[in-house]
Amino acid sequence: MDTIELEPKHIPVAGSADVVVAGGGPAGVCAAIAAAEAGADTLLIEEAGCLGGVWTSGALAWILDAEDKPSGTLLARIVRTLRRRGELEFAGDGTPAFNIEAMKALLDEFCMEAGVKIRCYTRVTSARRSADGAIACLVTESKSGCEAWRGRVFIDCTGDGDLGAAAGNPFELGDPQEHRTQPMSLLALLTGLDAAQMRPYLIRRGNWDEAADRFAALLCEGDYRPSYRGVALFHLGNGLFMLMANHQYGYSGISAADLTAASIAARREIGRQVRILKTRGPAWENVRLVATGARIGVREGRRLAGRYCVTLDDVMNGRRHPDGICRVRFAIDVHALYPDGGCKLEDAPPKAEFYEIPLRALIAGEVPNLLMAGRCISGDFFAHASYRVTGNAAVTGEAAGVLAALAARNRVFPGNVDYKEVIQEMKK
Q1: Which residues contact 19 (CB under 8 A, 6 or more apart)?
Q2: Mean pLDDT rounded to a whole number for the chain
Q3: What sections of the protein cross the membrane (predicted)?
Q4: Residue 347's pLDDT band (boundaries 50, 70, 90)?
Q5: Rounded to whole angstroms, how far apart are CA atoms 64 and 70?
């Protein structure tokens, strides 16, 4: 590989905080709000121009696995507030579906009210560790140049484990055999459809396969078949629909080149699908593509090694923990790694009704002041396919934020905080 040499340079320290959160998606915003509300000076760094991650930039306007979360959680507060404002309704399967612009504004509002310092358009690029192995500061790049940010406790909510990897914490990536990750999907928003006429094609609880098969038949044309066999159309309310109908196979979420190629391919396929739908009779002739996600949906990145690894056995047996902080009900949702399938759980016993994520899975194994929340927590490939969705990301983010605030307040590493204090604080 051709290389150049960059001369050493002095990087300005742009700011500091008790708790520094990298990534402003569902996990990151909840981590930052929780830390600030627990009394910590908190900084939230996000590479996009808005908070919310896949909820907003990714156009995933459903909160998956929001059920069975305590009413006092930040997630429940978000759902209640959006619903009270008329910006959220419960879809056919009870899943909260929301107005994306309202979600952006609400997350800004909640963070500002809590006193979170927000820096958008800023990407974490590296980290510096002190002699005791703790992160002393992280380094970012933005329009403002290269900057450093000091903190006592850092939380990786990047989804892909970017901060943990930069700090040297071990991680796993992909399936156990080939280290191949689940395919990406770009989401799209459609209008011009009547909800009553769309009912046979809409995803609701218990009908996914039936509705997907019916919808996929509409999208087939000549030798073209949708790249995602489980094509899905969701009603978000007020005449707005969300389309998930593509799989981008063989791309890595930690490669900018792959993300670019996958996004271009996905936009091309979505355009073709909408053109096909327009030919499918009066119910479809006015369908209009109004937006695709500003970023492609990445299902899987790095899984950072923690003090506990959530496993397939935990999921199947419904394992609970004294330090359990998030109850997960979502299925083991492995999207096929190849167009012809592969790496599904064949002939597996039924999954338990629920299992718990312990606080230990949020504490980095080899970087003492690093926590993680969202889909980059410590778990194996199959467990990750269950806990990775946004309802669980939000709750793990809240737990990480509370733990970080307590650690910063007591000037100890997170692993030295009694888990009972975290659970008690979350109940407040």
Answers
A1: 31, 32, 35, 36, 40, 41, 42, 43, 151, 152, 153, 154, 155, 401, 404, 405, 408
A2: 95
A3: none
A4: very low
A5: 15
Bridge partners of residue 21, in order along the sequence: 44, 155
- In 3D, which of 289, 280, 310 has the Cα closest to residue 241? 289
Q: Letter for the amino acid at 244?
A: M
d(CA 97, CA 241): 10
Are 395 and 30 within 8 A, CB to CB? yes
How do residues 169-197 score in pLDDT, each as one tens digit? 999 999 999 999 999 999 999 999 999 99
- What is the CATH code of the structural domain delimited by 13-176+300-426? 3.50.50.60
Instruction: Specify the amino acid at residue 116.
Output: V
Pairwise CA distance, residues 200 & 280, whole Å: 14
Q: Which residue has the tokens 């040297």?
A: 168
E-state strands within 238-329: 240-244, 288-292, 302-304, 324-328
Which phi and psi angles does 421 have, rounded to 5°? Answer: -65, -40
Letter for the amino acid at 347? D
**Residue 207: per-residue pLDDT:** 74
Q: What is the pLDDT of residues 264-295, one digit of tens each?
A: 999 999 999 999 999 999 999 999 999 999 99
What ranges do the domains of the chain cover?
Answer: 13-176+300-426, 184-297
The two three-digit tokens of residue 204, written as one number: 């609701």
pLDDT, tens digit (0-9, with 9 covering 90-100), for 324-333: 999 999 999 9
